[in-house]
Amino acid sequence: MKLTGQAFIGATRVAGQGDALQAIDPANNTPLDPVYASNQTRDVDRACELAQQAFRPYRKTDSETRARFLETIAENILELGDALIERAMAETGLPRPRLEGERGRTVNQLKLFAEVLRKGLWLGIEHDPALGERTPPRPDLRSRNIPVGPVVVFGASNFPLAFSVAGGDTASALAAGCPVIVKAHPAHPGTSELVGQALQRAVQQCDLDEGVFSMLFDAGHNVGAALVAHPAIKAVGFTGSRKGGTALMAIAAARPEPIPVYAEMSSINPLFLLTDALEADPEALAEQYVDSLQMGAGQFCTNPGLLIARTGPALDRFITRATEKLQGSQGQTMLTPGIAQAYNSGLTSLAEQPGVELIARAPDVQSPNQCQSSLLGTGAEQFLAQPELQSEVFGSAALLVQCDSDAQMLAIAEGLEGQLTAGLHLTDQTDSALAAELIDRLETKAGRLLINGFPTGVEVCSAMVHGGPYPATSDGRTTSVGTRAIDRFLRPVCYQNFPEALLPLELRGV
Amino acid sequence: MKLTGQAFIGATRVAGQGDALQAIDPANNTPLDPVYASNQTRDVDRACELAQQAFRPYRKTDSETRARFLETIAENILELGDALIERAMAETGLPRPRLEGERGRTVNQLKLFAEVLRKGLWLGIEHDPALGERTPPRPDLRSRNIPVGPVVVFGASNFPLAFSVAGGDTASALAAGCPVIVKAHPAHPGTSELVGQALQRAVQQCDLDEGVFSMLFDAGHNVGAALVAHPAIKAVGFTGSRKGGTALMAIAAARPEPIPVYAEMSSINPLFLLTDALEADPEALAEQYVDSLQMGAGQFCTNPGLLIARTGPALDRFITRATEKLQGSQGQTMLTPGIAQAYNSGLTSLAEQPGVELIARAPDVQSPNQCQSSLLGTGAEQFLAQPELQSEVFGSAALLVQCDSDAQMLAIAEGLEGQLTAGLHLTDQTDSALAAELIDRLETKAGRLLINGFPTGVEVCSAMVHGGPYPATSDGRTTSVGTRAIDRFLRPVCYQNFPEALLPLELRGV
């Protein structure tokens, strides 16, 4: 399929009339055709109007219809073939195997929600039968979940497939029965357009109302802000920076009718290396750790950006091996020139904090926009005294906090901001009281706790929680990955004393 | 038990040092002893500190311990005996049978959440076992819900027992494992103190940490605002006015760490009388309707404040009978002088809107603070043109919108704000297409839909939804009545690759 540079408004393609935007290959700073144009208020209004019109029929489609729709999107994405992978590689600098893997994940997410729909648990059906003899009599009461209404999804830069146009937010919102308007991420407009074509075609193939899917472009923030403020919109899905997420939260809270924003924002994913685990094989742990830190140039929400360990010979050996591995590593192209700049300035700013030192750094980069992986160090007292040391540097950067006591490790756990994940490395010999005390604190700070693993790699399944207390996300009661992500776009409705013929089909005969 | 006028801060009783507040018997405007005093910032800080301290042990108590705690609160409330009912009657003007019924409901709510705890579904347990052979291998992933943290509950004026100190919000938050700080409603401080004693004693009897329960008083808004802003607080439960609820939402959204506010605010609970149902027996329908309208002087969130029907002889007969019944009714004392004044001014303001006329009114009142039940009327065009006609007048007041066509009824359904409930009266002969069209629109507007009934009377059960889109509540994804109310105070946590000994008990061997 050809790239046209046009937005998707229902079944039509519309050229924006605003500021130009164009993808840049971050590996060589070359602009990539075509040129896109920012959409304007009238396009926002039209897309929202179509989404509102589509909501009535779409929310009433049965589970099987929506499941087939999700599967059709998945098939259409696969049919895009290598053109999708090549465009995504050019726009993001991510390597082929990563993008092929991410495409698989995207397709599997769509299929997972098809399965969720067929199983029907998402409906949350409850039934309290009438008790006519009771005083006062109890009426027949049944309830089920229904979709909240049209949803805006912001494409994320770091997962151009799995958290972008047809990613987890879109898949779960469409599964719930909500029309979706995507605000395409400006860093990968071509990838977005290809997936948008797959989605728009699936709407037609499944004979759905055209307003079920639209997608707009913007070089700036106007379109996103206007979408979140539009009265037709009932919820927002966002993955990105804390600054971006909190800006959307403020717009949503200031509406005449406030709406929920599900923003997945920032996390430094602390890992506590308990001394037994460190002593067991410090070199192996260092290698595994640096692998996780460097995966995807560290451009993951779950990048392990904070290490906490006790000083001693084992930690020294860990540092030595991590340093060797970092110094022997190659540069990796980051997603955009802007992200590479932000990485460098974030790292400089962190290194300039009192008591922070550079421990090790990858060799000087050879190409534009590459990430020079870095490990910094500080002491527990400095870390506890300076909340700004918890700021995320997006990319392959980590801060090692060296502790003199278990009490300091516990104090660090206690003082953490909300996180997506928190981990412990331990052995059978580890002091189980210390582990339990750490877990006790980390449970209240993170959405996912992991033992002897690394946070990168987020499984898409029922038990997954990709969420966590603010500022990891805007709403720690939810997850943006896994089957429970659909719950974000549902609300319950109770039906009292309904004759069978007027009940929704799902509630008849239950 | 004696009333002391003191607040509850953990296990201690503390006299406030701020402005005085005193209950007033609304039946005769007599102040009721003792005099209470507003708490101050240091009391807020101390209660929050204790709640935070209590959270760690309390959240780890097992389901059985918390179930017994809730049952002990229920027993202690019953042990207060007639003193509680008499004090509540004096403070609220509500009649004895209503308050005895409400006490039963309060006790049953506590017992219901004890049952919810024992059944264990609230834990939301999921398990995706390890797939070691897969590439990449899947780790073992288990998840469960944990409590969010200390919760602030605002006592409601209109349910001095069932939505106040030990009401639905408190019961569900305590069940979830959250310590609770109650901001007592200033209209019934004595009732609050009695129930507070029952709660404080239950904390001691069950050997729980003292910070599990505190209760503060305030003549104004400072204590409530400071509680919602306090960093230890993680969620808020509120039942009251739209002005109060939105003020709390704004405070919560502006915190460095925003928190959810579950505010149940305003609803006019539209009832659509379809012509068949009206024609079947207009007089009987009018009598049942006026009974619902006058129940509790209309001081319910579910008061049926909006009637929609087609003009014609049947509606004329309905109006005639409703008028007779209203004119033959007696005044009922409202909860407070302030509520009675607001009722009168709200009614005056509604009656002064263009195109609104007074249809019928109860006889002039004979005692202070009585509600003079009123039925007003307007046309569909006027209603559709004036959004302010949807404003709630808290008390026994209703607006009848007379329509000339089914299309107007559908337009009214379409234009409604979010509601707690919406109802239809119909018969087997009713045009089923019209009913389906109305239901289709009302489903997106309300939390509970009812056929051939009246919204007053909210069953406490699993299928109940006492919620609905804004402005009925701040969060239409939730309910404040029924078993699902506990979900408001929970968030999921995932445990990856945990050895059995470190897993929470509930997740072992699942």
Automatic annotation (TrEMBL), chains A, B:
Instruction: Enumerate the UniProt keywords alphabetically.
Output: Oxidoreductase
Cross-referenced InterPro entries: Ald_DH/histidinol_DH, Ald_DH_C, Ald_DH_N, Aldehyde_DH_dom, Aldehyde_DH_Superfamily, ALDH_KGSADH
Coiled-coil regions in this chain?
none
Cite the Pfam families for this sequence.
Aldedh
Q: Does the keyword Ribonucleoprotein apply?
A: no
As its record notes, the protein acts as a catalyst of: 2,5-dioxopentanoate + NAD(+) + H2O = 2-oxoglutarate + NADH + 2 H(+); 2,5-dioxopentanoate + NADP(+) + H2O = 2-oxoglutarate + NADPH + 2 H(+)
- Keyword check for Protein transport, yes or no: no
Going by the record, the broad EC class of this enzyme is: oxidoreductase
Give EC number(s), comma-separated: 1.2.1.26
Sample GO molecular function, one term:
2,5-dioxovalerate dehydrogenase (NADP+) activity
Q: Which Gene3D superfamilies match?
A: Aldehyde Dehydrogenase, Chain A, domain 1, Aldehyde Dehydrogenase, Chain A, domain 2
Residue span(s) of domain Aldehyde dehydrogenase: 17-468
Q: Which family does it belong to?
A: Belongs to the aldehyde dehydrogenase family.
Under PANTHER family, the record lists:
ALDEHYDE DEHYDROGENASE-RELATED, SUCCINATE-SEMIALDEHYDE DEHYDROGENASE, MITOCHONDRIAL
Q: What is this protein called?
A: 2,5-dioxovalerate dehydrogenase
